[in-house]
Design a protein that fits this description.
By secondary structure, this protein is mostly beta strands. Helices cover about 5% and strands about 45% of the residues. It is built from one helix and 17 strands.
């Protein structure tokens, strides 16, 4: 009996060591983030970004930028609900103009069009790099290497998203299912690390809501991504 008890304790200890989650948002205010104060706020424990056609108009894509570092290999999880225009989450990205909250780089797209939901879009770069339901090898242009399932998702409802970045391989999950997988093989254009940011898209009025944002920046000691 004692041996079984010891094995159970060791097992639980190993599981605990696997996860090193850090919250990106404190649930109360935008401490640790930088963005246009006209457009971003906190409401009921959520980060809310909203534009309109008058006092909250976005002339260009604008971002709420996390100030906690420039992670390289990580697992990022969050829940999002988007209405109106499309949004996205930047990662391994670069700040182009801090005063205008302008960012370029990898983006997990949050788009009402099912083909684009969860795709990899490279903001200020190579553009659409991997559509939802694809596996690609990315150089200057993407080459499809495989296909994935794409169950329907209502973007206006709360959905769970995950970004896994390990070396040159990038994976996007929607509600626990792999939606896009990219092997970026370009020796100069691929990114090894960079900022994380939330997007409000220029154009028609929109609202983007985010919650439960957390990151594990030591994925080598964490559990493998869910299939």
């Amino acid at each position: 009996m004692s041996r079984i008890f010891i094995l159970l304790i060791l097992g639980f200890s190993c599981l605990a060591a696997q996860a090193d989650w850090k919250p990106l948002f404190n649930g109360n205010d935008l401490a640790g983030w930088s963005g246009d104060p006209r457009l971003w706020r906190v409401n009921d424990g959520m980060i809310v970004g909203e534009t309109n056609d008058s006092d909250k108009k976005a002339a260009a894509n604008t971002f709420l930028i996390w100030q906690g570092g420039e992670p390289g290999d990580f697992i990022l999880e969050y829940k999002a609900r988007i209405t109106g225009n499309n949004s996205g989450v930047q990662y391994r990205s670069r700040i182009i103009d801090a005063a205008k909250w302008s960012v370029g780089g990898y983006q997990m797209d949050l788009h009402p069009n099912q083909r684009y939901l969860g795709m990899l879009y490279e903001e200020r770069g190579r553009g659409i790099a991997c559509l939802r339901g694809q596996k690609v090898k990315l150089a200057d242009k993407p080459t499809e290497t495989g296909k994935l399932g794409t169950p329907a998702v209502n973007l206006a409802e709360w959905n769970t998203y995950r970004i896994v970045a390990r070396g040159h391989t990038l994976q996007h999950y929607v509600n626990g299912q792999l939606a896009a997988e990219i092997e970026d093989v370009h020796p100069e254009k691929r990114a090894a690390k960079g900022v994380i940011a939330l997007q409000l898209h220029a154009g028609p009025p929109m609202k983007a809501e985010f919650k439960d944002l957390r990151i594990d920046i030591t994925p080598e000691s964490g559990p493998p991504p869910a299939n």
